[in-house]
Amino acid sequence: MKNEISIADLYKIQPIGREITISGWVRTFRSNRFIALNDGSTAANFQCVVDFEKFEDSLLKRITTGSCVRVKGIVTKSLGKGQPIELQVQTIEILGDSDAEKYPLQPKKHSLEFLREIAHLRPRTTTFGAIFRIRHHLAFAIHEYFNKNGFFYIHSPIITASDAEGAGEMFNVSVLDKRNIPLTENGEVDYSKDFFGKEANLTVSGQLEAELLAMGLGKVYTFGPTFRAENSNTARHLAEFWMIEPEMAFYELKDNMDLAEDFLKYIIKYALTHAADDLAILDQRLAEEEKSKPADQRSMPLLEKLKFVTENAFQRITYTEAIDILLQSPYHKKKKFQFPVEWGIDLQSEHERYLVEKHFNSPVIITDYPAAIKAFYMRLNDDGKTVRAMDILVPGIGEIVGGSQREERYDVLLSKIRQFGISEESLWWYLDTRRFGTCPHSGFGLGFERLVQFVTGMSNIRDVIPFPRTPGNCEF
Amino acid sequence: MKNEISIADLYKIQPIGREITISGWVRTFRSNRFIALNDGSTAANFQCVVDFEKFEDSLLKRITTGSCVRVKGIVTKSLGKGQPIELQVQTIEILGDSDAEKYPLQPKKHSLEFLREIAHLRPRTTTFGAIFRIRHHLAFAIHEYFNKNGFFYIHSPIITASDAEGAGEMFNVSVLDKRNIPLTENGEVDYSKDFFGKEANLTVSGQLEAELLAMGLGKVYTFGPTFRAENSNTARHLAEFWMIEPEMAFYELKDNMDLAEDFLKYIIKYALTHAADDLAILDQRLAEEEKSKPADQRSMPLLEKLKFVTENAFQRITYTEAIDILLQSPYHKKKKFQFPVEWGIDLQSEHERYLVEKHFNSPVIITDYPAAIKAFYMRLNDDGKTVRAMDILVPGIGEIVGGSQREERYDVLLSKIRQFGISEESLWWYLDTRRFGTCPHSGFGLGFERLVQFVTGMSNIRDVIPFPRTPGNCEF
């Protein structure tokens, strides 16, 4: 019932001597005497002490791992070491049984792979409870940061007829009967018969629409799902993931970098403050996992890494400087890089890792990439060959933020659109913003799951979103 | 640039005597002397006073409606009546021209229909600036409310192989080549060849997945896009809209109603406090619009209506009582209802309006609907014929919230699933929650655009979302 107290509040208030009622799920029932109860409000279980002589055996037998119970009793100081307070149980009501033989979550360590198969139950585990609560705190910190700083949250469309990146494999959205697809005289699919009267896809980015809003509201941000129909079965890719995309009128590239750095530090600090208990659990989990690695391959402990990021300035270098560092590196000289290094290449993850983890040992912002390897909407520098792009790389994850100052000059933008082979008719509204009251503006995209991975230390992206969508996987 | 002050802050701080720089878009340029500048941070323009003798004619001519300028000058008290402070301009930089002949937004009243066609530019108008800022404040208030009250924000999947409502027209999501659809031996579409290896659609609700999380985390909520492929070209329907769906373990129907009422009042109060200026603009707009109606058909002024809702208890009646009220009503006796009234019917919008606007003149919560007209997952009452549903109806909008206590009993749920002809194999994970540690729980859904309509007084739902998706309309 709503008026019951949560375990999180119980630990805060510590109402010793008071009679209370709590509900939750049994994690363990030890010696027919100690129920470790969890209600999801916090990682910590609450110890409920049962005098087994006062209860029927038939009831005690139903207190199994996974069962749901409501208990009433008196809060007392705990004599045990594990907790400050506990409950002396007076009444027990079984709300939901859990057959100990059949319940998949036994009180033992399960593999992450196994838990992924029962993603509907994994929020009941200590690890995933912690991950999803941290995910919440990060999301809230993002909204709080932007709200405090005068940004407006906007919803860019999910179904779209445009393709922001001029590339990217997209999911088609349709109501056409697949057994009877209408065709035009030329044998093309006749999308005029479809729901929207034209071909429609799931968005890969809300940026272009966010720019439209920034030209009216000044500073805006999106926080919504985006999609990639890439057949990538890796620990870094999801077909459906959440992105945060701020877009600011009158911001130039440096303002954009300053914002992104301040923003990342704010939300990580917020998590350190508001999710300390859950982070401690994941810090411990990661330390256990790292033990199996050779000492020189272990990563920085989780909490240490997060504090390091909030307390140190991000390194800022140009792409050209990055290439120079790589060319001068002992790695390059010893031919340890698998991919070639030369000006013009798209940095590979081995290059990014070298810069972040070996050379700087810190988050790095790389700017001014070659125009040819970046999107059409990035502002061309006066050198005519680089654009005002910025990528932020962090240890263990690689690119976490990608952004740029946008090309605000109509003629330059139009020639870029043509050069990239994008249909200018389909972007008439985007071009309009450069025809009427254009201004310098910038923005970036943060992959939310990459951020959650970075903060939780989870190495597989499928473990930081409740129900991951990947090739061949759309369960739940 | 980032370090420029926003107009919103300028009005707050009123730094008289200080030299400042601001950037924004010209709303009007009066008598070659007064620029009304807007930067989107607030509805209010900022008056910039230009001594035309100090500037070249060629520059003054470029200060047109829609152009983007950066001005530097000294803040002074304003001698005019419209504003407390103004800027004595020293320098003017044109950031972006706007050809007065071609710019679609002239400084005059445009119809909402026309503005919908230029949805990429309408955020630059006073009305839509206000609407989208209010939309932001409502969204933030929602996150703040839940965060304060111990709820965790979760992301339920957008692409799904399940159909929560057991009905609803859905958009199919696919990467299959439509000119070459693979078929099985039986002539069915062979979805095993598709991206997810099975048929996948856009979600109509995140509720079932939210329930899974609530069984681990206790109290959760979603705030994400949902979809309906209904061919409804009305002022009340969108193909893509945003929903908020809280789901709470241990909440029964009454707790659910208490939460929904408290929640709605909180977010409306938040808007009244944090978006007072923008609401005043829309209050005025609605009053103008209402003038064209006969006096007895005018609705309550916007601000009055919002305050009324926050200050009065919602009426709570059962469906059976609602039917009795309708049967006893003079409307029914005079045969003014178009649709028949009898126990078992789905209430029509004319019935809802009568209850809310004529009989109670207040928001109304109707509970305990006939099982046959509600979804399979709603908890069956002991009478065997009604379910613990609740709908909240508000003046002018009708249903804004729909919720229920969920059926937590495995056997009852299974028989309902079979009765509704839903595949129980596809819901194995949902049924699992009732097999392992089930508990009473409840939740509801709030249509975000309906809420924004209610708070802004906009009568067409296409005017409260930046880029509406409707049949035949997927522009921008």
Automatic annotation (TrEMBL), chains A, B:
What's a GO biological-process term for it?
A: asparaginyl-tRNA aminoacylation
Q: Organism classification, top ranks?
A: Bacteria, Pseudomonadati, Bacteroidota, Flavobacteriia, Flavobacteriales
Predominant cellular place of this UniProt entry's protein: cytoplasm
EC number(s) per entry: 6.1.1.22
PANTHER family from the UniProt entry: ASPARAGINE--TRNA LIGASE, MITOCHONDRIAL-RELATED (PTHR22594:SF34), ASPARTYL/LYSYL-TRNA SYNTHETASE (PTHR22594)
Q: Which locations, inside or outside the cell, does it occupy?
A: Cytoplasm
The encoding gene: asnS
Instruction: Fetch the InterPro entries from UniProt.
Output: Aa-tRNA-synt_II, aa-tRNA-synth_II, aa-tRNA-synth_II/BPL/LPL, Asn-tRNA-ligase, Asp/Asn-tRNA-synth_IIb, NA-bd_OB-fold, NA-bd_OB_tRNA
One cellular-component annotation, GO: cytoplasm
Which chemical reaction does it catalyze? tRNA(Asn) + L-asparagine + ATP = L-asparaginyl-tRNA(Asn) + AMP + diphosphate + H(+)
Q: Which residues form the Aminoacyl-transfer RNA synthetases class-II family profile domain?
A: 132-466
Q: Known CDD domains for this protein?
A: AsxRS_core, EcAsnRS_like_N
According to the lineage, what is the superkingdom?
Bacteria
GO terms for molecular function, please? asparagine-tRNA ligase activity; ATP binding; nucleic acid binding
Q: Which UniProt keywords apply?
A: Aminoacyl-tRNA synthetase, ATP-binding, Cytoplasm, Ligase, Nucleotide-binding, Protein biosynthesis
Decide whether keyword Nucleotide-binding is in the record: yes
Organism encoding this protein: Thermaurantimonas aggregans
Q: What is this protein called?
A: Asparagine--tRNA ligase
Subunit and interaction comment: Homodimer.
Protein biosynthesis recorded as keyword:
yes
Which family is it part of?
Answer: Belongs to the class-II aminoacyl-tRNA synthetase family.
